[in-house]
Design a protein that fits this description.
By secondary structure, this protein is an alpha+beta fold. It is built from 5 helices and 3 strands, in the order αβααββαα.
Length: 136
Amino acid sequence: MYKNKHELFEQVFQAILKSGEDGVFQTEICKQFSLDSRDGSRLAGNLEKQSLILREKILHKGRWTYKLIVKKSAIAEYNRKPIQIESVEGAPCFSCAYQHSCSSEDEASPYSPAKCVWLEEWIVTSFEKAYVKNEK
């Protein structure tokens, strides 16, 4: 049995993740984890609400069910490596007076990472430091 709902949630997500791009039928997940159809549907719905999976309604063995497919963005998030503090140390963004206005989505904004001279300078300097360090 599962210690808590979070553990069950995580194990179900892992099972769907293992199914790859083909996905897995919701009924198979219910059988695998001894869930009734209502609990299985709620769990899949919660995974979908969190944008971890897609649910595709499909006719399988003469019955309607859902195919559960992990979203590519969820795979990328799951495989993401933790950020090392050294990689962002000294970044100007953390102390920038315009941080609240900065947006990479608003092209009309004068404050964006793409137009920031302080960010560019920090990146170049960081790259140069790393290059010199690797040369030694």
